[in-house]
């Protein structure tokens, strides 16, 4: 193992430990109250789910209390969350769907398998830009190849180094970024390094592309 790899592993351990203390332990304590205040679906997510074809199978990574799991009865969603208490609540809210305790950085799913994936207000909980990029790559890796898989990753508008809406088409590795009413360019992730990717996330461009258009292009 090279010194650089050793440093990366050590940094990853520190980052995971920081998140365990300041994110995971907090959610374990506030899960019941948090769930009670998170019951209304976001329209952009509801629209995405209702646009999916009959029988589509996908993931909600960081599903929280499971409020999106029953939006569209014609699709099947596997839910997962790092907070065990929220998983229990989601299992009660969406008994017809499977919900497991899992980490977005190490998902327990077969790669290149799913028709779609959600990750709503999750990525900003990761403590570094590197881990946020790795999480998005993790989501992409679970989608079917050949342009069939779709992902919707939505973040609060105040999140640093993260887009408000990131719509990813797995086949071309294209990402559509949108922040509230602004327009954004389509970027090819194969040609963008981690640092450049975050620069593009932070430097919004205005193009004539609607926030939902990237879901089907």
TrEMBL record:
One of its GO terms (biological process) is tRNA methylation. GO terms for molecular function: S-adenosylmethionine-dependent methyltransferase activity; tRNA (5-carboxymethyluridine(34)-5-O)-methyltransferase activity; tRNA binding. Residues 59-147 form the Methyltransferase type domain. InterPro entries: AlkB_tRNA_MeTrf/Diox (IPR051422), Methyltransf_11 (IPR013216), SAM-dependent_MTases_sf (IPR029063). It comes from the Eukaryota. It holds the Pfam family Methyltransf_11. GO terms for cellular component: cytoplasm; nucleus. Keywords: Methyltransferase, Transferase. This is tRNA methyltransferase, has a role in tRNA modification, variant 2.
């Amino acid at each position: 193992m090279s010194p650089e790899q050793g440093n990366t592993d050590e940094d990853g351990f520190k980052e995971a430990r920081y998140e365990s203390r300041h994110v995971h332990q907090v959610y374990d304590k506030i899960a019941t109250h948090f769930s009670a205040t998170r019951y209304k679906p976001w329209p952009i997510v509801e629209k995405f789910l209702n646009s999916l074809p009959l029988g589509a199978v996908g993931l909600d990574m960081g599903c929280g209390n499971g409020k999106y799991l029953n939006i569209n009865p014609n699709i099947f969603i596997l839910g997962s969350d790092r907070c065990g208490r929220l998983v229990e609540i989601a299992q009660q809210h969406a008994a017809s769907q499977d919900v497991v305790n899992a980490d977005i950085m190490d998902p327990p799913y077969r790669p290149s398998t799913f028709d779609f994936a959600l990750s709503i207000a999750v990525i900003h909980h990761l403590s570094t830009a590197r881990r946020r990029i790795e999480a998005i790559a993790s989501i992409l890796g679970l989608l079917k190849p050949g342009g069939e898989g779709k992902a919707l990753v939505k973040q609060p508008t105040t999140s640093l180094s993260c887009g408000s809406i990131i719509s990813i088409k797995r086949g071309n590795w294209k990402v559509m970024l949108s922040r509230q009413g602004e327009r954004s360019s389509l970027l090819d992730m194969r040609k963008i390094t981690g640092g450049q990717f975050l620069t593009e996330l932070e430097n919004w461009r205005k193009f004539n592309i609607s926030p939902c258009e990237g879901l089907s292009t």
